[in-house]
Amino acid sequence: LAKPTVFIMNEIGQGLDTINRGKVTSILNEIVDSPMFSSKALIHITHHEDEELKNYSHKITLKNGIILIP
Which residues contact 55 (CB under 8 A, 6 or more apart)? Predict the structure, then answer.
């Protein structure tokens, strides 16, 4: 079986209410924090800033197709 090292989550909270989006975000945070996930990358694409993950090493914010520099 394949053992992927990059996971892309595109709008996984789309269509969910705020409570369930929060639950999905909590699950993602647990996965990313687990030892099994070391040496792996998660690309999380969302329109909802409340879905932001806790422990990310890089964050890119786009506005009208332009990368915003923090």
Answer: 29, 32, 33
